[in-house]
Automatic annotation (TrEMBL):
Gene3D superfamilies: FAD/NAD(P)-binding domain (3.50.50.60)
GO MF terms held by the record: FAD binding; monooxygenase activity
Pfam family, one: FAD_binding_3
Keywords: Monooxygenase, Oxidoreductase
InterPro entries attached to this UniProt entry: FAD-bd, FAD-dep_Monooxygenase_BioMet, FAD/NAD-bd_sf
Domain FAD-binding: 3-320
Regions crossing the membrane: none
Organism: Actinocatenispora sera
Protein name: FAD-dependent oxidoreductase
């Protein structure tokens, strides 16, 4: 999402952009995604907020908390911070639609980056190709080629957990959005448009890379005996639709900018999903980068400004997500007790500490023809 956000923002301030996408085609992939108010404001600034809202449904994420037995620790309240729940594919489509078709190059696997020259080598259709740009934006995920060119040895760290995700469409039971807290695992249930339901399970993993012949059965084993409608949701899930990913986080990198290149999204600040802010922070990155480039005529000054604005905030959010995971794991009983007694205004303030962010305003209708 960060790459598309940067492309939208840079085009909006007058740049020509090219997006190298590793996937062979822009197809429907992924599951549900929660967009917090900070991300929605950023999408508004990028000009796609209305389209994204039309593809989503409002919900309260992490506001309704339950025990595996079904007892409620806390019900979501009208004054809780709301999110927009969307399917990842719908968000991708809304952000991709304003970009011209020739700006999107699918099936392109980046193999190397020259930071000083601003050139990118990539493989496409069995051939090695190269493109040059005034600015290279690395939104290439956890195992970023650009990050390795900038900061060799800075690899993501396995978190010791895995996550399963799926969307249930036809036949989904009626739900109340909730997060069920087990001692070492959590099961989330959230709505999607069209009465669909998104569910996820985070659970311990001894090592990365372990997969199961029947992923749905592996999920069911880990939540056996948990409250309704978890069992009904799993029964309504198409087995082949379950996604399984290992969880990683990235220790702070020395900088997000070097030479003619910048990092954003997971390439810069991969974090665990415990605050639901990963994609939101990537979208913020794209807006701030575009605003910095528009505000400064000198590229080095612009990307330095981007780094100074984004690195402290994103690393703070990543630390907070890691801290939340640690609290849940090491202080489960205290967490469940506190969930019952925290006053609603304090609960909202805790959620709003990252969601009250306001994006910089982007200028429109500029005529720069610089490539990125």
């Amino acid at each position: 999402m960060g790459g598309l956000a940067a492309a939208l923002g840079l085009r909006q301030v007058g740049w020509q952009v090219t997006v190298l996408e590793q996937a062979a085609e822009f197809a429907e992939v992924g599951a549900g995604l929660s967009l917090w108010p900070n991300a929605l404001r950023a999408l508004d600034e990028l000009g796609v907020g209305p389209q994204v809202r039309a593809a989503g449904v409002a919900a309260v994420s992490r506001g309704g908390l339950r025990l595996p037995s079904g007892g409620w620790l806390r019900h979501a309240r009208p004054d809780d911070v709301h999110v927009l729940m969307v399917h990842r594919a719908a968000l991708h489509e809304a952000m991709r639609a304003p970009l011209p078709a020739d700006a999107l190059i699918p099936g392109a696997t980046v193999t190397s980056v020259d930071l000083a020259a601003g050139t990118v080598a990539y493989r496409q259709g069995g051939e090695t190709r190269q493109r040059g740009a005034d600015l290279v934006v690395g939104a290439d995920g956890l195992h970023s080629v650009l990050r390795q060119a900038m900061w060799p040895g800075h690899e993501p760290r396995f978190d010791g957990r895995r996550v399963w995700r799926a969307v249930v469409g036809a036949g989904a039971p009626r739900i109340e959005a909730s997060l069920t807290l087990g001692a070492d695992r959590q099961f989330g249930i959230l709505p999607l448009p069209g009465d669909a339901v998104y569910w996820f399970l985070t659970a311990p993993a001894a090592r990365p890379g372990e997969r199961f012949a029947d992923e749905l059965a592996a999920v069911a084993d880990r939540v056996a005996g948990w409250h309704p409608p978890i069992g009904e949701l799993l029964a309504a899930t198409t087995p082949g639709s379950v996604l399984h990913h290992d969880l990683y986080a990235l220790d702070p990198v020395p900088g997000f900018a070097r030479g003619r290149a910048v990092l954003l999204g997971d390439a810069a600040h991969a974090q665990t999903p415990d605050l639901g802010q990963g994609a939101c922070q990537a979208i913020e990155d794209g807006v701030v980068l575009a605003a910095a480039v528009a505000a400064h005529g000198d590229l080095a000054t612009a990307i330095g400004s981007y780094d100074r604005q984004r690195r402290p905030r994103t690393q703070l959010v990543a630390r907070a997500a890691a801290k939340q995971a640690e609290l849940n794991a090491k202080h489960y009983r205290a967490v469940t007790r506190l969930a019952r007694i925290i006053p609603p205004p304090l609960w909202r303030r805790q959620a709003a500490r990252f969601t009250d962010w306001v994006p910089p305003a982007l200028p429109h209708d500029l005529s720069s023809t610089v490539d990125s």
